[in-house]
TrEMBL record:
SUPFAM superfamilies: Class I glutamine amidotransferase-like. CDD domains: GATase1_ES1 (cd03133). This is GAL3B protein. It comes from Irena cyanogastra. It comes from the Eukaryota.
C-alpha cells in the first residue's frame, strides 16, 4: 500500500505563509515516490498579511486553512482532525508562516512558543516513532520541542549564500546539534527520526532547492 504522509501548511506565500515552491516540491516528490499526500493546515488567522509585491504588511486578515487550500487545490483538512494512527510520516515545508502562524519564532526567536495544535502533532509522530521531514525554517520547530535533536538549516556562518545562518546559532542555544550541509543534501537524525534540509535558507538556484527537498522526501519515506 502507498505510504500516507501528512503535509502541514502554514498559509500561501513565502512572507506570511508556506513557501509555495517548497510545498509544491514536497508534493511532487511524494507523488514521484508513489506516496499519498494528505494536506492539513490549522484553522486560524494568520499573524498578518504581507503584500508580496511591496514586501509590506497590509491591514487585511486571512485564514491559514483557507489560504493553504490554494496550494492543495482545495483538497485539505483542518489540522485539528489529523490522526497520527492512520499516517506513516509528517512533512512541514518552510516559509515565514512557520515562524509566524505555526510558532512565534519570527518575533521571539529561541524564546518562541509553538502552536499547541502543531506541537501536539509533532509530539504524536515523534512518540509513534514515525519520521518527520522539515525544511527551510521549519526545523526550528523540532529544535524547540526536541532538545538534543540533530537538524540542519544549511550553514552556521552568515554570507551571501547563507543569509539566515544566525538561525543555526539560535538552534544550538536551544540545545540541539546543528549539522552544516549543502542545499542539495538532507540530514537524517536516526535516533529522533528527523530529516531536515535547508531549502530557501540558501541563496541557491531553485532546482538545487528542489533536489534537496527530494532527498528529504526520499529519506522520510525510507524511514516510514
Amino acid at each position: 500500500m502507498a505510504k500516507r504522509v501528512a503535509v502541514v501548511l502554514a498559509g500561501c506565500g513565502v512572507f506570511d505563509g508556506s513557501e509555495i515552491h517548497e510545498a509544491s516540491a514536497v508534493l511532487v516528490h511524494l507523488s514521484r515516490e508513489g506516496a499519498q499526500a494528505e494536506v492539513y493546515a490549522p484553522n486560524i488567522l494568520q499573524m498578518h498579511v504581507v503584500d508580496h509585491v511591496k514586501g509590506q504588511p497590509t491591514p487585511e486578515q486571512r485564514n491559514v486553512l483557507v489560504e493553504s487550500a490554494r496550494i492543495a487545490r482545495g483538497n485539505i483538512k483542518d489540522l485539528a482532525t489529523l490522526d497520527v494512527k492512520g499516517l506513516d510520516a509528517l512533512i512541514i515545508p518552510g516559509g515565514f508562516g512557520v515562524a509566524k502562524n505555526l510558532s512565534t519564532w519570527a518575533t521571539q526567536g529561541k524564546n518562541c512558543s509553538i502552536s499547541k495544535e502543531v506541537e501536539g502533532v509533532l509530539r504524536a509522530f515523534h512518540a509513534a516513532h514515525k519520521p518527520i521531514g522539515l525544511c527551510c525554517i521549519s526545523p526550528v520547530l523540532a529544535a524547540k520541542i526536541f532538545p538534543g535533536c540533530e537538524v540542519t538549516v544549511g550553514h552556521d556562518t552568515e554570507c551571501e549564500q547563507w543569509p539566515y545562518a544566525k538561525t543555526a546559532e539560535a538552534m544550538k542555544e536551544l540545545g540541539c546539534r546543528h549539522v552544516n550541509s549543502q542545499v542539495t543534501e538532507a540530514h537524517v537524525d536516526a535516533r529522533n527520526r528527523l530529516v531536515t534540509t535547508s531549502a530557501f535558507m540558501c541563496n541557491a538556484p531553485i532546482h538545487h532547492i528542489h533536489d534537496g527537498i527530494g532527498n528529504m522526501v526520499r529519506e522520510v519515506l525510507r524511514l516510514a
